[in-house]
Each structure stands twice: as C-alpha cells, then as structure tokens.
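Hi R.,

Here's the input for the zinc ion complex you asked about:
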Amino acid sequence: MKSCTHYKMDADGNFVEMTPEEVEKDRIKGERELKEKIKRKGHDCSETPEFYEFWEDGRRYHGWDCSICGDLIHTG
Ligand SMILES: [Zn+2]
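And here is the predicted structure with zinc ion in place:
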C-alpha cells in the first residue's frame, strides 16, 4: 500500500514533501485549532450538520452546513 504524501509550500511558493515529523506536527496543530474553534463557537459544527440543496443555472448544488452558525461543513 502506498502511503499518501503530504506537501507544504515553502517560502518561494514551491510544494515540498513534508517529513513524517512535520505531518504529525501539522496534525496536532489541526486538532488544536479545531478544539479552539469549538470552544470559541460553543459547539462542534460537524455534529450539527444540516443538509442543503439548491439549483442554480441548471446545476444542482448540495452539501451540509452547520445548523447553528451556518458554516460550510461539506459540499457534495
Ligand atoms: Zn457551527
């Protein structure tokens, strides 16, 4: 099984491969940011999803947004 490679952008705007240590650090940072976001908002958006669907220019758009604050969770 091929493990997925993570990339980051360096100061020059080039994508460079991340080391496993950097990937782990990034994951921890993401988790901390999510926790802070939940604390700030007082709820976890991913636990209060609301399905939405609308048509525009003959195209159907759908996904989930937060039923409390309206933040986009996932588009379909
Ligand atoms: Zn929310």
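One thing worth noting: Strands lie at 7-9, 15-17, 49-56, 59-66, 72-75.

Cheers,
M.
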